[in-house]
Amino acid sequence: MKQKFRIGFILYFLLIFTILPIMPQPILERVGISTTVQAADDDNIINYRDITFNSGFATHDQPNIININFPVTKVTNISYNKTTKQLLYDIAPGGSPMHIDMYLNGRRPPGQTKLWDQKLTVEMCGSAYTQMGYDREKMYNNGRDENWSCTGGNFQQYYFQNWSTEWGTLYNIGLDSDDRRSLDFDLSTLRSAMKTTYPYEFKQGYNWFGPSGNDDFMNPPELFRIRIVANSAWYRTDLGASDGPYQVSYSPGGYTPYMTEVARLIPNHPPSISVGTPNGITLVNASGLSGINIEGYVSDPDNEDVTVTAEIPNVFYKKTTVYQAQSSKPFYIPIDAIDDALSPGSYNMTITASDPSGMKQSKNLTINVKQQMRNKSFILINTPVETRTKFFDSEGDSKSAERFRYDHNPYFYDNSMGIIGDSGLWRTSTYSSFPYSGVYTATFQGRDNPKNDDRFDVYRKWSRDNLSSMVFHVHRKPIALFSAKLMGGYIQISDSSYDLDVRVVSRQSA
């Protein structure tokens, strides 16, 4: 029976590296009134959109005695526990510091001047309100959001109708008779500073009334307030702490400007994402086979814009934005093994949908990149490889079997590592990697099946070797080894790099 078919042979090699996902380092200091961070999908937790407070300026009746310059401030990661009534939030770093100038002209109270001391104090407090509670507090203050102090505990909540997130002292120092202070505070570390500098004056608040004690606290908070208070006054030193400083301060020393910022709390929900690109998809670093689109659908119940990112840590990063994604909308992110310089290997890609406040959902996708090999190609030892074959038969017969042979010359390079055990022998499967350096000739044969009947086995023919062979080289990485030392004011560099595969031309030719 004549040879009836032609065998085409394509050999692909795959460099597979395990890429461990690198967790992003936190960029925010998490300080709140609960040490347990709840999951975004916990029904007991309400998450809110980020808040950006505008900059502001505060002074009092006599300008330039005390000035507060409040910077643009972003509040992030805001969440509320419906059971404990506890509010958590972060103040994002990177903004301008809060700047406070304080100055007194040294006028002590008349008489008994030795009994008075001048103090400079900066305090901060945070509060959360329902709309009803906030309106009631303003009613107590003649319709104004004004309070020249930061007080805590049940007094604050009974009188001012709010949840206290925290309150404390930032700065408290005695001054000389004629002194000026110019202070800067990093708002992102404000609460840590209060807790560390004046631990006995720092309190982390909670709902004193419980879930049913007061109408103002029955519902989740709707407003959030940050207040900064700067106070400079003369105090009596002979009356004892029990009388309290505010009962013994003397004007005009007691100038107390405050800076208050209030923002509405808007509930926020995470976006959702589905990925349609098949997991484990393969790209080949060859023209026409190297690119695909990472695609899928995103939606956001709050109808916010959704940013979709595709990331392989330290290797690949691209993003796109899907606008007003209340209904499910598609996304596409192109990736190309050649254009994006992806080396052969196996990669774990994280695809994340994020809303403007940072709530997110992620999916993982494995992408394989393979190297298409040709005659005289080179691979490294112990590199996992993939072999693909194509079978053609002129009469349309199916393939009944296949076999492979690897003829290994271990002496092509210096420092031979040994020879594979079945060099020159037929085997039914391909090698998944090659442990020894050298030059290899790989041969593939396919056997046809003209009739699906073992009585005709003699008519099942193997293809010719010369139609299906390929030569490739397996080698070791060179070793870079440098040292440097300072000698006589100059740097001397010694290069001890070496390559175990240094080719001996006289021994073998390519």
Computed CA radius of gyration, to the nearest angstrom? 37 Å
- Derived structural class: mainly beta
Number of helical stretches of at least 4 residues: 3
* Helix amount: under 10%
Protein described:
With 510 residues, the protein is mainly β. It is built from three helices and 32 strands. The protein has helices at residues 131-140, 153-160, 190-197, and strands at 7-13, 45-48, 51-53, 56-58, 66-70, 73-81, 86-91, 98-104, 116-129, 163-174, 179-185, 203-204, 223-236, 250-255, 258-264, 267-268, 272-275, 281-284, 291-299, 306-312, 316-322, 329-336, 345-354, 360-372, 377-380, 386-391, 398-409, 426-427, 438-449, 469-475, 482-487, 490-495. Strands 1, 18, 20, 21, 23, 24 and 26 form a seven-stranded mixed beta sheet that branches. The longest helix is centred in the N-terminal third of the chain and has 10 residues, at 131-140. The relative contact order is 0.15.
